Amino acid sequence: MGAATPRRHTGLALLFCAAALLATACGEKKAAKVDAEAERAAALERARHDTFGTQVQALDKAKALEADVNKKAQDSVDNAEKDAK
Question: What's the pTM value of the predicted model, to 2 decimals?
Answer without folding.
Answer: 0.44
